Amino acid sequence: MKNEIKNICCIGAGYVGGPTMAVIADKCSHINVNVVDINKERIASWNNTDTSRIPIYEPGLSSIVERCRGKNLHFSTDVVKHIKEADMIFISVNTPTKVKGIGAGKASDLKYVEACAREVAKHATNHTIVVEKSTLPVRTAEVIKTILKEAQVNPEKKSSTPTFEVLSNPEFLAEGTAIKDLNEPDRVLIGGESKEAIDALSDVYRNWVAEDKILHTNIWSSELAKLTANAFLAQRVSSINSIAAICESTGADVREVSRAIGTDNRIGSKFLASGPGFGGSCFKKDILNLVYLSNYFGLPEVADFWEAVVHMNTWHQHRISKLIVQKLFGTLSNKKIIILGFAFKANTNDTRESAAIQICKNLLEEGAVLSIHDPIVDPKQIENDLRLDHENKNHAYEGRWSSTNDLSNIFDNAHAVVILTEWQEYSQVNWLEVSKVMQKPGWIFDARSIVNRQKVINSGLNLWLLGDGT
Ligand code: NAD
Ligand code: UGA
Question: Which protein residues touch ligand 1 with a CB less than 6 Å away?
Answer without folding.
Answer: 11-17, 37-39, 42, 79, 92-95, 112, 115-116, 134-135, 171, 173, 175, 281-282
